[in-house]
From TrEMBL:
All copies of domain Filamentation induced by cAMP protein Fic-like C-terminal, residue ranges: 424-481
Domain of life (superkingdom): Bacteria
Keyword annotations from UniProtKB, A to Z: ATP-binding, Helicase, Hydrolase, Nucleotide-binding
Span of domain Schlafen AlbA-2: 14-129
Organism for this UniProt entry: Castellaniella defragrans (strain DSM 12143 / CCUG 39792 / 65Phen)
Pfam family, any one: HATPase_c_4
PANTHER family: GLPR-RELATED TRANSCRIPTIONAL REPRESSOR, SCHLAFEN ALBA-2 DOMAIN-CONTAINING PROTEIN
Protein name: ATP-dependent DNA helicase
GO molecular function terms listed in the Swiss-Prot or TrEMBL record: helicase activity
Length: 497
C-alpha cells in the first residue's frame, strides 16, 4: 500500500469495510472485526492509527506482523488467509490487514464456537449473528437460494393458483410447465412441490409458514417515531401489497393540479414513482427467513422510510447499491414481479431511485444498514413537505344543521337504523372503507353492528363496493349507488317529507 492510498484511507470514516486500531492491546476485538469482514463484504483493518486519525505506527512492525498472522491462524475457523502489509510513512510503520469476502463463510471466533462466535459487519460495528443469519450465510456460501427451496410437506392445493392466474391474466397461463419455469414448483418424488417463493407469493396460509411476511405502515407527526397518527397492517399477497401500501401513503398526502399545454395532470405531494420503486425493492429483497421483523413503511413530515428485514448480502455494500450493483436475494419473487410488469429491468431499482430523485430535484435518498436490515429514506422537497397534521374534521356539508337533522331523521325512518343513516350521509361526501367510517363515527373499532348495517345497505342496493371482485380486500371501499344518492337528495324548500 503506497502513501497516497494511506492518506486517502486516513481521510475516510470507519464503516462496513474499514476500521482503525491504535494497537493490538485488545486482540479479541481485532479478531472479531476480521471475522465480520470475511462474513460480509471484506475490508481493511489498519493497526497503528490513533483516535484522531493520525498515523502513530506500531513499535516493532515485523514482530506485530508475525503476531497478527499467528492470532488469525489460531483464533479464526475456518482458516482465514488475509493479505497483511507493512505501511511506512516517514519513520512510522503501520499494519494493514486486508480481508476479502470469503467463500468459506461463516467464519467464527474459535474460542466462542460456531453458534456464538459468528460476526457480521453492520456499519462501523460488528454484530453477533443469530441462528437465522448464520443459516443465511451458510446458504449463500453453498449457492442455495432461500425462495427456491421446496416445501415438501405442501402440495399445489396450498397455493391460490386461481388468484395467481387472475394476476397474470393474458401474460401467461399457469400450467405445470409455467409454474416450473417460474420456479414456483419443483418435481420431487414424482409430484409437484411448491417452493418457498411460491408460498410467499401465493400461499393460502402464507403467514402460517412465514409469520413476518406482512407490511406495517405508520404515519408519524414530525420527524421521529414519538407520535404516531395513523397505522395500518397489510397482509395482502406480496404483489397486491404494493397497491395497498400506495393507498396508505396517498391517504396522508395531498394532490394538486398542474395544467400543461394539452391536459391536466395530478401532482402528489410525495414522489410516488420513487416510493413505488422502493416498495417493490423491499418486497423483492427482504430476508423472509428472518423472524420478528416485518417490512416497515414510516411516513414522516420530511421523508418516507422503507425498512426491509435482512442485512445486505455478503459482498455487497451501500456504495455498491447506490452505483447500481445488485444481487437479487429472492429470484423467484423477483421473476414473478418482473412477469407482472412491476420490475422494469433486473437490478436497476435502487439506481433508478437515485436518478429519479435528481430528476425531481429532491434531496438524495439515503440507504442505511440498521440492526434489523436495510432502511431506504426517500426525502421530500421543502415545498412538498406536509404541514403539521391536524385531526380530521367532519367534512363541510352543503346543507344547514337543521336540514341535516331532518335528512338524517328521514333516512333513519326509511332504513330503520340510525347507524345506517349516518353511514349513508358519510358516503355521500366521499367513498370510505369500514375503518374510515368507524373513525368518522367516533368508534375505536369496526363494530359488529357496523358490519351488519353495511351488509344491509349492500343488499338494499343503497351502496356498492369499489372492488366487487375482491370483497375481502383491505383496500375495499364503499360508495353510494344511484339509488343511494336519490335517497339522500335533500327535499326542496317548502316540501314536506
Amino acid at each position: 500500500m503506497d502513501g497516497p492510498l494511506l492518506d486517502a484511507l486516513l481521510q475516510t470514516p470507519e464503516g462496513k469495510t474499514l476500521e482503525f486500531k491504535r494497537d493490538l492491546s485488545s486482540p479479541r476485538n481485532a479478531i472479531k472485526t476480521l471475522v465480520a469482514f470475511a462474513n460480509s463484504a471484506g475490508g481493511r483493518l489498519i493497526i497503528g492509527v490513533d483516535d484522531a486519525r493520525r498515523l502513530i505506527g506500531v513499535a516493532d512492525p515485523l514482530d506485530e506482523e508475525e503476531r497478527i498472522c499467528n492470532l488469525i491462524a489460531d483464533s479464526i475457523v475456518p482458516r482465514l488467509i488475509p493479505n497483511v502489509e507493512l505501511i511506512s510513512q516517514g519513520n512510522r510503520t503501520a499494519l494493514a490487514v486486508e480481508v476479502f469476502p470469503s467463500s468459506n463463510r461463516p467464519h467464527h471466533v474459535k474460542a466462542q464456537g460456531p453458534e456464538q462466535g459468528v460476526y457480521v459487519r453492520l456499519g462501523s460495528s460488528n454484530r453477533q449473528a443469530g441462528p437465522d443469519l448464520i443459516a443465511e450465510l451458510q446458504r449463500s456460501a453453498r449457492g442455495v437460494v432461500f425462495d427456491e427451496i421446496t416445501m415438501p410437506e405442501l402440495t399445489l392445493e396450498d397455493l391460490d393458483l386461481a388468484a395467481a392466474q387472475k394476476l397474470f391474466g393474458d401474460r401467461r397461463t399457469l400450467d405445470e410447465k409455467s409454474l416450473a419455469t417460474l420456479k414456483l414448483v419443483r418435481r420431487e418424488q414424482n409430484r409437484l412441490v411448491p417452493t418457498q417463493g411460491a408460498v410467499l407469493l401465493f400461499g393460502k396460509d402464507r403467514e402460517q409458514y412465514f409469520p413476518d411476511a406482512w407490511v406495517q405502515c405508520g404515519r408519524f407527526r414530525g420527524t421521529d417515531k414519538v407520535h404516531i397518527f395513523d397505522q395500518m397492517e397489510i397482509h395482502d399477497p406480496l404483489p397486491q401489497a404494493v397497491e395497498a401500501i400506495e393507498f396508505f401513503l396517498k391517504k396522508h398526502a395531498f394532490k394538486s393540479a398542474r395544467f400543461g399545454a394539452m391536459r391536466r395532470e395530478d401532482v402528489w405531494s410525495i414522489p410516488l414513482t420513487i416510493l413505488r420503486e422502493a416498495i417493490v425493492n423491499a418486497l423483492v429483497h427482504s430476508d423472509y427467513s428472518q423472524r420478528g421483523t416485518p417490512i416497515r413503511i414510516a411516513f414522516f413530515d420530511d421523508r418516507v422510510d422503507v425498512e426491509s428485514p435482512g442485512l445486505l448480502l455478503p459482498g455487497m455494500t451501500v456504495e455498491d447499491m447506490k452505483s447500481g450493483v445488485s444481487r437479487i436475494r429472492n429470484p423467484v419473487i423477483a421473476r414473478v414481479f418482473r412477469e407482472l410488469g412491476m420490475i422494469e429491468q433486473w437490478g436497476s431499482g435502487v439506481r433508478r431511485i437515485f436518478d429519479e430523485a435528481v430528476a425531481q430535484d429532491l434531496p438524495e435518498p439515503k440507504v442505511t444498514e440498521i440492526a434489523t436490515g436495510v432502511r431506504l429514506s426517500v426525502y421530500l422537497s421543502q415545498d412538498r413537505r406536509s404541514v403539521q397534521i391536524k385531526e380530521p374534521s367532519p367534512p363541510a356539508h352543503p346543507l344547514g344543521t337543521a336540514d341535516i337533522s331532518r335528512l338524517e331523521s328521514r333516512l333513519e325512518s326509511r332504513l330503520e337504523s340510525s347507524l345506517a343513516a349516518k353511514v349513508v350521509l358519510l358516503l355521500k361526501e366521499h367513498e370510505s372503507g369500514k375503518a374510515q367510517l368507524a373513525r368518522a363515527l367516533g368508534h375505536k373499532t369496526v363494530s359488529g353492528e357496523l358490519h351488519k348495517q353495511i351488509r344491509r345497505l349492500l343488499e338494499m342496493g343503497m351502496i356498492e363496493m369499489t372492488l366487487p371482485d375482491t370483497p375481502t380486500s383491505r383496500m375495499q371501499r364503499y360508495r353510494l349507488t344511484v339509488k343511494g344518492h336519490a335517497a339522500v337528495a335533500a327535499p326542496s324548500k317548502g316540501t314536506r317529507d
